[in-house]
Amino acid sequence: QADNIIFAEEKLNDAGLIDNVSQALEFAMRREQDSINYYAEMKNFVHPDGHAKLDAIIAEERRHYQELYAMREQVKA
Fold first, then answer.
1. How far apart are CA 43 and CA 21, in angstroms?
2. Torsion (CA) 53, 56, 58, 63 in degrees, nearest 10
3. Confidence band (pLDDT; 50, 70, 90) for 17?
4. DSSP characters for 46-65?
């Protein structure tokens, strides 16, 4: 299942090690990157007609990553 690949149990267990907002944002950023990598890899297995949909999902995940990055930078400041 896709959610098992993107959110493997050991990665979710890392959530229990979060002690502050910055760590929470970094955890979320890693999960967004995992999602980007997953959907990019899916393009190798999907008919080219489906690539545009996957590209749209990847773009959305990148926006999420950028938003989380900006939040993390604000927390650091």
1. 34
2. -160
3. confident
4. S-GGGHHHHHHHHHHHHHHH
Domain count, the chain: 1
Q: Residue for token digits 């297995």?
A: 45
Which tens digits make up the pLDDT trace of 18-59? 999 999 999 999 999 999 999 999 999 999 999 999 999 999
Q: What is d(CA 20, CA 15) in angstroms, rounded to the nearest whole number?
A: 11
> pTM of this prediction?
0.79
CA distances from 58 to 13, 22, 64, 67 (A): 25, 24, 10, 14
User: Domain range spanning residue 21?
Assistant: 2-76
